[in-house]
Amino acid sequence: MKIYTKGGDQGTTHIYADKPEKLDKHDIVLETYGSLDELNAQLGLLASQVAETEKKQIQGVQRQLFQIGFALSASAKLTENDILSLEQQIDIWQAQLAPQTHFILPGGSTDAAQCHICRTIARRAERHLVAMSKTRDVPAICLKYLNRLSDWLFVLARWLNKLAGVPELAV
Hints:
Order of helices and strands: EEHHHHH
Helix content: 55-70%
Mean pLDDT: 91
Radius of gyration: 17 Å
Number of domains: 1
Strand order of the largest sheet: 1-2
CATH architecture: Up-down Bundle
Distance between the termini: 51 Å
Shape: elongated
């Protein structure tokens, strides 16, 4: 199978949802898919840098991002349990972190800085998904998952800084 089709050379592409659809490459649907793809790639970079425990968790999130893509194009297996899993991990990490009493500069260790990049992309993907929901059916669980994921990534960044012994910098 060839990787190139030449079908997008004129600025359009096809998506396959309930039915095939031809869209301009700047369409909000493709912007949303692009943000999810970018987030997934950045998470892959983060996963390549962290310890095995965190790596497995990040790879689980990467798989769930594909579920969001599937939900937008046809069907997904994303469930409330996936959101609960993020919330439970946030609680585990937060129980071992000092209480947050101020805004924190994104950064610290390389891993935490990469995590903050992923967090900001997750927030952009969420904004695109909200915009997309104004004209298309978007499962509410997808919005909820992305919203919780940005929280998860924020706490993961704090956790990674703790593991690296890097202090958080107040704004």
